[in-house]
Write a structure and sequence with these properties.
The protein has 112 residues and is α+β, with helices and mostly antiparallel strands. The protein contains two helices and six strands.
Amino acid sequence: PFWLWPCGGKQKKAKARADESSDVEVTPAVTKKPFRVNLSQLPLDMDGEELEEIVADYGKVLKSAIVAGNPKFHTGWVEYSTKEEADKCISEMHDRNMIDWSMLLKAALASN
């Protein structure tokens, strides 16, 4: 679900047995928190596939979603693995005009 974020925390070292005679220290992989861009004032006829197609121009999309609920416009979000990709999306999408849509799109980096 979109409201769950990967858990952060301090990296811990764990001991794993390679064989009975020796111990090998293994460092677990660290899950890097994605950079989420919140979008608002999306056209009512925009679907998730169209949103992902548009935002893919700015970097590799990890996840994206359209959130319905406002009768005047949709909101949504997109996640990228790097801040540079998220910043590029924001600079290109914020205050963007869409054909046949009277509102300017809004884009901002989500607070962590």
